Amino acid sequence: MQDSQIHATAIIEPGAKIGRNVIVEAYAIVKEHVTLEDNVTIKGHVYLDGYTTIGEGTTIYPFAAIGTQTQAIRYQGEKTYVTIGKNCQIREYVSINSSYDEGSTVKIGNNCLIMAYCHVAHHCEIGNNVTMANGAMLAGHVTIEDHATIGGMTPVHQFVRIGRYAFVGGFSRVSHDVPPYTLGSGNPYRFAGLNSVGLKRHGFPFETRLELSKAFKLVYRSAFSNAEALTQVETQLPQIPEIAHFLHFCRTTKRGLLGIVKDEEAPVEETADKA
User: Fold this and answer.
1) Which residues contact 252 (CB under 8 A, 6 or more apart)?
2) 187 in a structural domain
């Protein structure tokens, strides 16, 4: 705890690991198995529990609760983990639960912004540079890839994946996988097309955006079945890394792709949480 600033009213249980230059403000609680890496800031009234690691430079704002026991009723006391990466901003009243299944981990990557009142449930995995706006909620087993954005008040169904650089608008209902690089919103969900503005801002060249637009149109704007459209993407478009990832994501879906109703969806037993 060298050079750290721990308020007199904060509770740091024996066994907790505190790095250098850590700030823990008034009335925060840090339980015995928590690790705070260097330069972490814990604002007042935060509650940190379980086998939780908070990465270097991350700030957690008042009344957030992280590492608390999963809400899945099948939990039987297994030892599970929560890992939050570097330089994240975890805002007020966010709840991030632990998991069930021995040794499982809820993971949040680096440079993520999780705004107020968001919820992250058991077995979730969030990539780097992800933004979740106020009140977005992830059910169990959700995967969010790098640079994705989820708008406010949006629930994401269990086992759903949201692809990299996808932009999901606020007040949406996400019940199936959202392909990478896409833009959409609503309930029922409607795709507007490629996330062109986001891709421009992140430096994707015009040629890459053009090929991704072609891939999106083959899957969502053509008369092909989903399987036929993906074959067209593979055979007709250059297999640059972005197209290859789009293709792999679509072909490995278990929930089914959001907005695809012409192909049979995944069996219930593969998608239902057994909590």
Assistant:
1) none
2) yes
Domain count, the chain: 1
Domain, as residue range, for 48: 5-199
Distance CA 24, CA 42 (A): 5
Count, residues in the chain:
275
Would 212 be classed as within a structural domain? no
Phi/psi for 232 (5° steps) reads: -65, -40
Specify if 244 maps to a domain. Answer: no
Distance (Å, rounded) from C-alpha 176 to C-alpha 158? 9
* 274 CB-contact burial (10 Å; exposed 0-12 / middle 13-18 / buried 19+): exposed
> Are residues 173 and 155 in contact, defined by beta-carbon separation less than 8 angstroms?
yes
Confidence (pLDDT) at 273: 57
Residues near 262 by beta carbon (within 8 Å), at least 6 away in sequence: 225, 226
- The whole-model pTM stands at 0.94
Mean pLDDT for back-to-back runs of 10 residues, the chain (275 residues): 92 98 98 98 98 98 98 97 98 98 98 99 98 98 98 98 98 98 97 97 98 98 96 98 98 94 43 50
Query: CB–CB of 107/122 below 8 Å?
Result: no
User: How many other C-beta atoms can be found within 10 angstroms of the C-beta atom of residue 223?
Assistant: 7
In a domain, residue 269? The reply is no
Task: Please choose, from the candidates 21, 57, 52, the residue with its C-alpha nearest in 3D space to the C-alpha of residue 35.
Answer: 52
CATH code for the domain of 65: 2.160.10.10
The rounded distance, in Å, linking the Cα atoms of 163 and 144 is 6
Angle at Cα 96 formed by Cα 180 and Cα 35, nearest 5°? 110
Mean pLDDT across the chain: 95
